[in-house]
Write a structure and sequence with these properties.
The complex is a heterotrimer of chains A (351), B (336) and C (583).
Chain A (H helix, E strand, L loop, with lengths): L1 H24 L8 E6 L6 H11 L3 E6 L2 H11 L7 E3 L3 H9 L26 E14 L12 H6 L8 E2 L6 H11 L3 E6 L4 H13 L1 E2 L6 H6 L7 E5 H11 L3 E3 L8 E8 L6 H11 L2 H11 L2 E2 L10 H6 L9 H19 L2
Parallel strand pairs in A: 1-2, 1-3, 5-7
Antiparallel strand pairs in A: 3-10, 4-8, 4-9, 4-10, 4-11
Chain B lengths: L1 E10 L2 E11 L4 E5 L6 H9 L6 E6 L2 E2 L10 E4 L11 H11 L4 H14 L4 H4 L8 H13 L5 E5 L7 H18 L2 E6 L2 H7 L2 E6 L2 E6 L1 H6 L4 H6 L3 E4 L1 H11 L9 E4 L3 E3 L8 E12 L3 E8 L2 E8 L11 E6 L5 E2 L1
Parallel strand pairs in B: 3-8, 3-9, 6-7, 7-8
Antiparallel strand pairs in B: 1-2, 1-4, 4-5, 9-10, 11-12, 12-18, 13-17, 14-15, 14-17, 15-16
Chain C lengths: L7 H7 L2 H34 L8 H8 L1 H34 L5 H8 L7 H12 L4 H9 L11 H11 L2 H12 L3 H9 L4 H29 L3 H6 L7 H9 L4 H31 L20 H28 L4 H6 L10 H8 L4 H31 L4 H11 L6 H12 L15 H25 L3 H9 L4 H29 L3 H6 L7 H8 L9 H33 L1
Helix pairs in contact in C: 2-14, 2-20, 3-14, 4-5, 4-8, 4-9, 4-11, 5-15, 6-15, 9-11, 10-11, 11-14, 13-14, 17-26, 18-19, 18-21, 18-23, 20-21, 21-23, 22-23, 23-26, 25-26
Classes of the chains: A alpha/beta (351), B alpha+beta (336), C mainly alpha (583).
Chain lengths: 351, 336, 583
Amino acid sequence: MKKFVSFVLALVMLLSVCAFAMAEGANTKGTGVELTVYTNSGSSGRADWLRERAAQDGFKLTIVEEGAGAVQQRLINEGAATPCDVVFGLNAIIWNDLISRDIIAKIDAPSWASEVSEGLNDPNGYYYAIVKQAILLAYDTNQVAPEDAPKDWPDLWENEKFWTKYESQIKLTGGTTRNVLAGILTRYIDPNGELGISDEGWAAIKAFFAHGTPVEDGVDLYAQIVNESSPVLMGQMWSSGADQYDEKYGTKTGYAVPECGIPYAVEGVAVIKTTKNMDEALRFVEWFGSAQIQGEWSEQFKTMPANEKAADKAPASQIEMCSIPAQNIDWALVAANIDAWCEKIMLEYMQ
Amino acid sequence: MIRLDGIEVRFGDFTALKDINIHVKEGEFYTFLGPSGCGKTTTLRTITGFIEPVKGTVTVKGKDLTHVPVEKRNIGMVFQNYALFPSMSVYENIAFGMRVKKVNKTDIDRRVKEMAAKVDLTDQQLGRKVAELSGGQQQRVAIARALVNNPEIICLDEPLSNLDAKLRVQLRGELKEMQRKFGITTVYVTHDQEEALTLSDCIAVFNKGFIEQIGTPNEIYSASKTEFVCNFIGDINKLSPVTVAKINSQTGRSLNPEAATYIRLERIHVNEPHVQGRAVLPAKVIGAEYFGLYIKYLLDLEGQTLKCIDKNDGRQYLKSGDQVEVAIDPADLMVY
Amino acid sequence: MQAIKVPLKTRLARMTPGQMIMFGILAAIFIWFIMACMILPILNLLKTVFFEGGKLSVDAFQKLLKSSRAMKALRNSFILAPTLSITVGFVGISLVLITEYFDIKGSKILRLGYLTTLIYGGVTLVSGYKFIYSNTGVLTNLMASIFPNMNRNWFTGYWAVLFVMTFSCTSNHMIFLRNAMRSVDFQTVEAARNMGASQWYILRRVVLPVLLPSLFAVTILTFITGLCAMSAPLLVGGKDFQTINPMIKQFADMTTTSAKSLSATLSLVLGLATMILLAILTAIERRGHYMSVSKVKTKIVKQKITNPVVNVLVHIYAYVLFVIYVIPVVLIVLFSFSDSAHIQMRQLDFSTFSLQNYVQLLSQNTAYRPFVVSIVYSALAAIIVGALVIVACRYIQKRRNSVSATALEYSLMLPWLLPSTMIALSLMLAFNQPRWYMFNQPLIATLQLLLIGYIIVKLPFTMRMTKAAFFGLDDALEDASRNLGASGLYTFRRVIFPVLLPTVLAIAALNFNGLLTDYDISAFLHHPANPTLGVKIKSLTEEMGNSSDGVALTFVYAVLMMIISAVVLYLVYGRGSRDDLKG
């Protein structure tokens, strides 16, 4: 009898452990319907990790990994013929562009949407945030003392001592670059100005590009910072990159904390309107954004999850960087105008 | 004029020429004759300087040229393919050598035109590209180009080998005519024995890097020094030991029946009145080739086939199966 | 060389029913392919870009004319192209003379060094040069240790771009000009010597004139390469010397119609310049063609340089060139064993060397697949392009100067009008919906779409070079074969094709190697589940997704691709060079 009781107990314990484990894993399971996922956040083994992790929970994924701009182009140009079901990674600017082109499906908020920090999800219910990246003006504290460092982006062109010391971009399609430009230009909004920006704003942008050192294609910012022959000491950086590069180059990143706050590149997840697998796509969104999966992702790839319940899984440095207040930016306005802004910059101001 | 003394040429391990001794006299038409790969072109190239011998000397008019570079020798050359410059006009091809020597323009023009006239090239042809000329015209350009610098010697490397038979015969005549006109010392390389015999004052027959015989066309043809030479030059019959023994018994000679014994086609006399000292043997006609000028008969003589020719003078016309008598003069036999 | 003109009607009437069916099928394939895959998509793209809302828009022109940056870039491109043609011409001719004409000690090794441009290019190649000349490069460090006050950033701007491109654009010389050198009749050299000409005189007056037609052809290709320069200005042009093509790419990468119209406008400028050059080239080709008059050519005997001082100088020059060519490759291979940080800082530190990059790349379960995908696509495209172009050239050869032949020739050159990004875009826009001319099948996310893209972008170069080979054919060969009773097809298969084969294979190998690393077309057109190498490599260096060793992995990929390219070239040329050894 004792034996039987202990057996039953053991069985119950085992079952409960299993159940618990399953609950921990994620509440939602996939049904094995094949999903095609586009992402700009698939390298460094992310795509492989996600494919395998999702397979454990019954999702069958084909992941197409490309740069953010390429994913955007692809979705636009494939139109209704796209095989894509779910997209994740992209930033608010691109999301808004895709929404305006009627490519993204409006979906009911997944259960974890309420766990995401205020203001990161799309208020209209098109995309939901998963990872946040603070967009920083970064420098190496070994070379520039924080008191000598710029406090905000305008310092770079207004203060002569930073001239040629910062990188100016040569390609304006990158997400980080566009967030930086949006963060600067939206300070000068003037409905009567050219492309909605005041003359003062354009003068600022002109000075920004005129006094920077252009990026050397193929060489990253930190390689320039540690290179004694290069004048570059600072430039734009996304928060998870700062940690990675510090580890790689032995630098110690410092960053400006502007009074008006900083732009955040919010990596989100969304479903494509033309998907033929809507139910499975929704299940995937529910699964992927859950605190459990986002926590694992964060641990694995040292990023800052948007899901507050998973925030403790992120490294301390990420938590610190991402505690800087967000700049108040009208993303819809940015999305509507950023291409025209970039075009003007490329034609008139870039070096 | 030209002396080659003890020339030896090697290509790596291969000895291409061994102990070549040649003396070309001034104004002479001298021919190197032999099958391909026998060393005749190599010898010519040694004279022009494209090849430096490992042993021996090349002298021209008593001057040692053995180690003088090609461009300093002033020996004209006509190449097998003519080697005309495809990017230049006929005029420019002929003028090339003078341009190199920086002759002034009016002189160049005068001499090109003179030379062109001598080789029968019209002014119109001078303006053409070389690719537009016929084979015979190309050859004349090549010769003009070689002669325009007034070389003391001209070397021709199988210049007729790329031409059709009729043109070859015609140009052969022109070549000889030109040589006579210019009186220039000529060294000529050919594998065509007919060409060699008709053109040359003197012939050197080459075989496997050696010279087999040097002599006038008649000496080479009628008194071939070696079995190789008599086989290479002209057509010939080899007599069987049985036939040689019969000739011995009829004429009282003591030729060695086992030796290689040859007789030229035209020295076999068919159905001719008997002449003292000739052996007369019965034979049967088994075939005939009609050439017009002469008829070539194939005869069966005791099991061996002999070729002979008979002048088509209306004296006789034989048919296959006819029984004939052939007469052979032992003096005409070449024995090795 | 007279082709007797027979009207198409008569020719058709003379055909057997079988021939007629084959002709019909081939004609249908060509007309369909040219219309459906090239002309209609490109017109569709131009319409989208320039006729927004049904009205012709000239905004792009006005914007560009106002943009000092665009005008400067345009000017730079038109400065670079002619100067590059001269420098590449000089170096290219030297390479050919060193490897094929003069007797230079160790010329076989030198030749291998000079051939390295065939196995790598673009960003990888320029990175290799930067390892040597940039501010932390090997040479700069060396010079800085002698002249401590020197400007370490000396390797930038026009001269740097010109330098890198001068040595990286000699591939065509090494293939096509070297072939021409081999066909020089050596007896003409001897004849000139015999007439007393010096070596220099012979080179100038006898040898180079014969090379002239080939030299023209490769020079025009160099000119086009200069106009379309991309990696070198981007990587070493600096602030002062940016060219037009990177700008075209940047605008093409943007999603708005207005950016696309800027891109298309700029590319049409380059495309038109290209077309004009090609027309000039075609005219030159018609006029001057030095068919050697010799029936039997004598093989070149390497010329020993007689002047001892010149001989020493030429040897030094040959080996300096060798070093310039080989060191970038060596450094790329070495750095592929290092880590990303050291690669980016360009510090060669042997203590950082490990096999880790290779292990990591080869153990990733998604790593090998892009290799297979790229190899299969590149090989298929190279073969199909080769076959299409041979058939087309044959038609053009037979019907020289007819309207249909000219139309065919220029249609196949059409892709040179637009950069590959735009071609890819035109295909994507055309086939993201059912089109009647594509049998109502949308091609998005199909395997064949990328193949079509690859084929199209390689058509012009293949056409250009194959046509040159057809022109070089001895007409007598064909006459001889027909005279022996062979049919046209049989003659082509057994006589013409074998003669052309070495050139055809060489072009196919070049196409294969070029496509292996393609990013521009693949990025748009690749099948979702089958990314190509270029796409994979690009994703390794994307921001935010960037891992700490992305750059190092791109070097591993570069090395592996160099190996594949080298193997392909060996298979194509290996036999030929063994023949050389014998000769």
